[in-house]
Amino acid sequence: MTKSVVILGAGAWGSALATLAKANDHKVHIWSRRSSRTLEKLVEDADIIVSAVSMKGVRDVVSQLQGLPLSPEIIFVTATKGLDPQTTCTPSQIWQEAFPNHPVVVLSGPNLSQEIQQELPAATVVASNVTSAAEVVQLVFSSNRFRVYTNADPLGVELGGTLKNVMAIAAGVCDGLQLGTNAKAALLTRGLTEMVRIGVHWGAKQETFYGLSGLGDLLATGNSPLSRNYQVGYQLACGKSLTEILTHLQGTAEGINTTKVLMLRSKQQNISMPITEQVYRLLQAEVTPRQALLELMLRDIKPEYNE
Ligand SMILES: NC(=O)C1=CN([C@@H]2O[C@H](COP(=O)(O)OP(=O)(O)OC[C@H]3O[C@@H](n4cnc5c(N)ncnc54)[C@H](OP(=O)(O)O)[C@@H]3O)[C@@H](O)[C@H]2O)C=CC1
Ligand SMILES: O=C(CO)COP(=O)(O)O
């Protein structure tokens, strides 16, 4: 059945999601701050509102929508991979708090938007506490080039896509320093352990991190120069300053803010996150890439599990 889909955010990801829904013959409108059409007009007959704005815009768009008369049937989909710097909340928690009577669906997976726009095949996950809502969203986006799975752990799916951005920065550093394949495998594997450690403590399910939105997205962004987070790490390793990198970066690298939020949370909750800590110190220019590497290599030796 044809759905009316409003996509908030005309950036790289909002545009790619619009392409996918349009290809399935849904009625799609993209809204951005620069749109000539008002948000009120666009959401008038919406069935689904997809938020693809970067983290810094989430609270803005939520509060704009809160002031509008919305159909109680509307499903919200959040595709943002970030954390709120003030509260450490995930975007879906912000949406759900603002709209407690609407279903909220998280969409996350290994989905580099440029590849999707090139019509290369990809897979993703839509997760919600309301299974029927996740299934509606699954149908809207599924096609022979975009395979969509449902999942009942929205927090885990959201954190998988969000936490991996920190590891994508680290992976970029690893490649920028030309540390080789063994180092990269070690980094991504221990990075996943770190994601699981904090994610499970947060309330997510461990197995979710071994799926598309955790391991899958870690492999995609940790190995692709298309990832903005990877690009940040790579260029830091090549000696550029963060300010210099951000001046020329196309789009948003959410991992920079996410690293700060994670450091705060891991300190408050006494959770060991050594890779995140070195990425943080590197972003703050407190260590060089080589010093960060040595710090990680020279940590106390220990068993692989039960740290
Ligand atoms: N690109 C990708 O491959 C993927 C990205 N994501 C995630 O999707 C999110 C968006 O990424 P992406 O599209 O690449 O980023 P871009 O930088 O390309 O776009 C960011 C979008 O957010 C909007 N925005 C920012 N602040 C505000 C605000 N205060 N009010 C309204 N809109 C705002 C921007 O609007 P404006 O243009 O007006 O500035 C723009 O539309 C990120 O969280 C990212 O991690 C997830 C999967 C894949
Ligand atoms: O999350 C992404 C792909 O799944 C996009 O990664 P970047 O934000 O690092 O470009």
TrEMBL record:
Record keywords, A-Z: Cytoplasm, Lipid biosynthesis, Lipid metabolism, NAD, NADP, Nucleotide-binding, Oxidoreductase, Phospholipid biosynthesis, Phospholipid metabolism
Organism listed in the record: Fischerella thermalis JSC-11
Residues annotated to bind NADPH: 13, 33-34, 81, 113, 228, 254
EC number: 1.1.1.94
Record-linked Pfam families: NAD_Gly3P_dh_C, NAD_Gly3P_dh_N
Cellular localisation: Cytoplasm
Pathway named in the protein's UniProt entry: Membrane lipid metabolism; glycerophospholipid metabolism
Record-given protein name: Glycerol-3-phosphate dehydrogenase [NAD(P)+]
Functional note: Catalyzes the reduction of the glycolytic intermediate dihydroxyacetone phosphate (DHAP) to sn-glycerol 3-phosphate (G3P), the key precursor for phospholipid synthesis.
Sites where the protein binds NAD(+): 9-14, 228
Reaction(s) the record says it catalyses: sn-glycerol 3-phosphate + NADP(+) = dihydroxyacetone phosphate + NADPH + H(+); sn-glycerol 3-phosphate + NAD(+) = dihydroxyacetone phosphate + NADH + H(+)
SUPFAM superfamilies, alphabetized: 6-phosphogluconate dehydrogenase C-terminal domain-like, NAD(P)-binding Rossmann-fold domains
An example Gene Ontology biological process: glycerophospholipid metabolic process
Enzyme class (EC, first level): oxidoreductase
Family label: Belongs to the NAD-dependent glycerol-3-phosphate dehydrogenase family.
Annotated binding of sn-glycerol 3-phosphate, by residue: 81, 109, 164, 217, 227-229
Active-site residues (renumbered): 164 (proton acceptor)
InterPro entries assigned to the protein according to its UniProt record, in alphabetical order: 6-PGluconate_DH-like_C_sf, 6PGD_dom2, G3P_DH_NAD-dep, G3P_DH_NAD-dep_C, G3P_DH_NAD-dep_N, NAD(P)-bd_dom_sf
Signal peptide residue numbers: none
Glycerol-3-phosphate dehydrogenase NAD-dependent N-terminal domain ranges (all copies): 5-36, 38-132
Residues in Glycerol-3-phosphate dehydrogenase NAD-dependent C-terminal domain copies: 153-293
Main location as per UniProt: cytoplasm
Binding site for substrate: 81, 228-229
CC annotations in GO: cytosol
An example molecular function term from Gene Ontology annotations: glycerol-3-phosphate dehydrogenase (NAD+) activity
Lineage per the UniProt record: Bacteria, Bacillati, Cyanobacteriota, Cyanophyceae, Nostocales
